[in-house]
C-alpha cells in the first residue's frame, strides 16, 4: 500500500488478492479514503473520531461542536479540535452515519447503482447530549455550530440537548448556512476562542460573522434533485435541452434559491466566481470551495478566486448528506467578508 504511506501512522493492511482491510491513524481521513477509492471499490469505511480522545491534552477552554454537514479542510478541523456529530443517511434498507461509515466515494458507488432515493435525518437529541457531557469533563463551555435551521432540524436537536445538559455552559448557534459556509463560521469561532474570548463573547462574534457569509453554487446535473422531488422532471429536461446550468444562491437564513442559469457548466462556474467576488465587494475576504465529485471544476473556481482575493482558497470534498441534496458533480463557494 505504497499509495497511502506518508498519510498517517500505524498502517495495517490485511487480506488477500481480492479484498483488503486497511487501518490507518491520520488527521486527514477523507484524503486517505479518496486515495483508496482510486485503487478499488470501498465496500465499507469507518472513521473513529480521535478528537474526543485527545481533548484532555488540548489547551483551549472552550470546545467546538458541529454536525457532519459542515465542511472544512481536515487539517483545520483537527487543529481546532472540532467534534462533529453525524447525521444519518438512508438508502433503501441501509442506514449509514455520515462521514463515519460512509464517505462521498462510498455514497457515489452505492447511489449510482441503486433505484432508491437517498434520505438524510438529523442526529438524535441523545447523540448531542452524550457528546456535550463528555466534552464538559474537559472544557469550561461548548460552542455548537450547525447547519441552517431553515434546512434541517439539527440545530433544534442540539438546542434541546443543550437545555437538558447545561444551558449556561453550552451555546448553540444556527449558522444560517450549509457546508463550507458553516465551516467559515466555525473558523471565526476558533479564532475568537484562540484570542481568549469567553463563551458569551464568542457567541456575539459568531452572530456578527454569519451575516458576512454567503454561498453560491452550481451543479452539472439535476438528476438528484428530480429523484428527490426538489425539481420537476419537466424543468430538468427544459434546462438540459437549452444547455443551461442552474445557479444556486443561499440567502441570509440559509435557504437555497434560484439564482438564474448560465449557458453551460463552465460559464456557471465563472458565474459563481463573479457572484462571490461581488459579495466580497473588494474588501479582504476568505473563501472555501466544496465539490461533490468535480475536482477539476472546484480547482478552477479556487484558482480564479485566488487571483482576485489573494491568499489560500482551500478545496474540500462534500459529505454524503450534502450530496443527497445537490447531487454528484456540484461545485459551490462560500465567501466571508473579513470586515464590514
Describe the structure.
This protein is of the alpha/beta class and 340 residues long. It has three domains: 40 residues, no CATH class; 164 residues, Rossmann fold, CATH 3.40.50.10170; 126 residues, Hypothetical Protein Tm841, Chain: A,domain 3 (2-Layer Sandwich), CATH 3.30.1180. The strands form four sheets. Strands 12-11-10-15-13-14 form a six-stranded mixed β-sheet, with helices on both faces. A four-stranded parallel β-sheet has the order 4-3-8-9, sandwiched between helices. Helix 12 links the parallel strand 13 and strand 14. The longest helix has 16 residues.
Question: Rg to the nearest angstrom?
Answer: 20 Å
Discrete helix count:
13
The strands making up the biggest β-sheet line up spatially as 12-11-10-15-13-14
Amino-to-carboxy terminus distance: 49 Å
CATH class descriptor name of the largest domain: Alpha Beta
| Strand elements, count | 15
Principal-axes geometry comes out as globular
| Beta-strand proportion | 15-25%
Which class of secondary structure composition applies to the elements? alpha/beta
Q: Please bin the fraction of helical residues.
A: 25-40%
Topology as a string of helices (H) and strands (E) = EEHHEHEEEHEHEHEHHEHHEEHEHEHE
Which CATH architecture of the largest domain?
3-Layer(aba) Sandwich
Biggest sheet features: 6 strands, mixed
| Uncertain regions spanning at least 5 consecutive residues | none
Mean pLDDT: 84
The total tally of domains equals: 3
If you consult CATH, what is the topology of the largest domain? Rossmann fold
Amino acid at each position: 500500500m505504497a499509495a497511502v504511506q506518508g498519510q498517517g501512522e500505524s498502517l495495517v493492511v490485511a487480506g488477500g488478492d481480492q479484498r483488503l482491510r486497511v487501518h490507518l491513524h491520520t488527521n486527514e481521513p477523507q484524503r486517505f479514503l479518496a486515495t483508496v477509492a482510486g485503487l478499488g471499490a470501498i465496500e465499507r469505511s469507518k472513521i473513529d473520531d480521535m478528537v474526543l480522545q485527545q481533548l484532555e491534552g488540548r489547551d483551549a477552554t472552550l470546545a467546538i461542536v458541529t454536525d457532519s454537514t459542515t465542511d472544512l479542510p481536515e487539517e483545520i478541523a483537527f487543529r481546532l479540535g472540532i467534534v462533529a456529530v453525524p447525521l444519518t443517511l438512508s438508502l433503501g434498507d441501509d442506514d449509514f452515519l455520515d462521514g463515519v461509515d460512509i464517505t462521498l466515494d462510498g455514497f457515489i458507488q452505492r447511489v449510482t447503482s441503486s433505484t432508491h432515493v437517498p434520505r438524510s435525518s438529523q442526529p438524535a437529541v441523545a447523540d448531542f447530549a452524550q457528546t456535550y457531557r463528555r466534552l464538559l469533563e474537559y472544557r469550561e463551555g461548548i460552542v455548537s455550530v450547525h447547519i441552517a435551521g431553515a434546512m434541517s432540524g439539527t440545530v433544534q436537536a442540539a438546542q434541546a440537548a443543550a437545555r437538558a445538559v447545561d444551558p449556561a455552559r453550552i451555546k448553540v448557534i444556527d449558522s444560517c448556512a450549509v457546508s463550507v459556509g458553516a465551516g467559515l463560521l466555525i473558523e471565526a469561532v476558533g479564532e475568537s476562542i484562540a484570542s481568549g474570548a469567553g463563551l458569551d463573547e464568542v457567541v456575539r462574534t459568531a452572530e456578527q460573522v454569519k451575516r458576512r457569509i454567503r454561498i453560491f453554487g452550481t451543479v452539472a446535473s439535476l438528476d438528484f434533485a428530480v429523484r428527490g422531488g426538489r425539481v420537476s422532471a419537466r424543468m430538468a429536461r427544459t434546462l438540459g435541452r437549452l444547455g443551461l446550468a442552474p445557479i444556486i444562491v443561499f440567502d441570509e437564513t440559509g435557504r437555497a434559491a434560484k439564482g438564474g442559469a448560465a449557458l453551460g457548466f463552465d460559464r456557471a462556474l465563472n458565474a459563481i466566481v463573479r457572484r462571490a467576488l461581488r459579495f466580497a465587494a473588494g474588501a479582504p475576504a476568505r473563501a472555501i470551495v466544496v465539490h461533490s465529485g468535480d475536482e477539476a471544476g472546484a480547482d478552477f473556481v479556487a484558482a480564479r478566486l485566488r487571483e482576485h482575493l489573494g491568499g489560500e482558497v482551500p478545496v474540500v470534498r462534500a459529505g454524503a448528506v450534502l450530496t443527497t441534496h445537490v447531487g454528484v458533480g456540484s461545485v459551490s463557494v462560500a465567501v466571508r467578508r473579513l470586515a464590514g
